[in-house]
Amino acid sequence: MATENKNLSALLNPLSKDNPVIVQILGICSCLAVTAKLEPACVMGISVIAVLAFANVIISLIRNTIPTNIRIIVQLVVVAGLVVIVNQLLIAYQYDVSKQLSVFVSLIVTNCILMGRLEAFAMGNKPWPSFLDGIGNGAGYAIILIIVAFFRELLGSGTLWGVQVIPQSWYELGYANNGLMILPPMALIVTGCIIWVHRSVNKDLQE
């Protein structure tokens, strides 16, 4: 029962109470960079989930054979290998999205969420809990990206997933898209608003 509760916590806690973006304040850079549109934000989120989950499993499997003084190098090599695979899959099957994401897929290698979970969790736990931890933290990261991208694309471009959502009749009545929303600083402001709402609801997170 204790093991099941631990596994459940590893999967679910990062979705809210221990979210890597809005609680631990990690992965903010990519949140600024890829959330002007919903599609690349979703693809980035899925990519991080896949890389983090499998990197956690691999590091967990070999954790007892990794010399302590080179463990960070080994972790980087594992993550880099998985990122190359993800990048090649995107180029093969989602070329337009991969162009929008540009170098940011490659920069998953340096995402502090990944290195933090590999060091803090996968190095000390078995493969299954590590897999769940990777899924949970990746999903927590993806949720925030998707929420930020939803508001930025909707209010900044009047579209969602490239499809016009705000009716043309609104524009004829004088509605104008908020061009500020698609600028990088607005991603930080929207993220800040999410953090504010989240901490208002979760009083135990307030200092």
From TrEMBL:
PANTHER family: ELECTRON TRANSPORT COMPLEX PROTEIN RNFE (PTHR30586), NA(+)-TRANSLOCATING NADH-QUINONE REDUCTASE SUBUNIT D (PTHR30586:SF1). GO terms for cellular component: endomembrane system; plasma membrane. Keywords: Cell inner membrane, Cell membrane, Ion transport, Membrane, NAD, Sodium, Sodium transport, Translocase, Transmembrane, Transmembrane helix, Transport, Ubiquinone. NCBIfam families: nqrD, PRK09292.1. Belongs to the NqrDE/RnfAE family. NQR complex catalyzes the reduction of ubiquinone-1 to ubiquinol by two successive reactions, coupled with the transport of Na(+) ions from the cytoplasm to the periplasm. NqrA to NqrE are probably involved in the second step, the conversion of ubisemiquinone to ubiquinol. It catalyses: a ubiquinone + n Na(+)(in) + NADH + H(+) = a ubiquinol + n Na(+)(out) + NAD(+). Composed of six subunits; NqrA, NqrB, NqrC, NqrD, NqrE and NqrF. It is found in: Cell membrane; Endomembrane system. This is Na(+)-translocating NADH-quinone reductase subunit D.
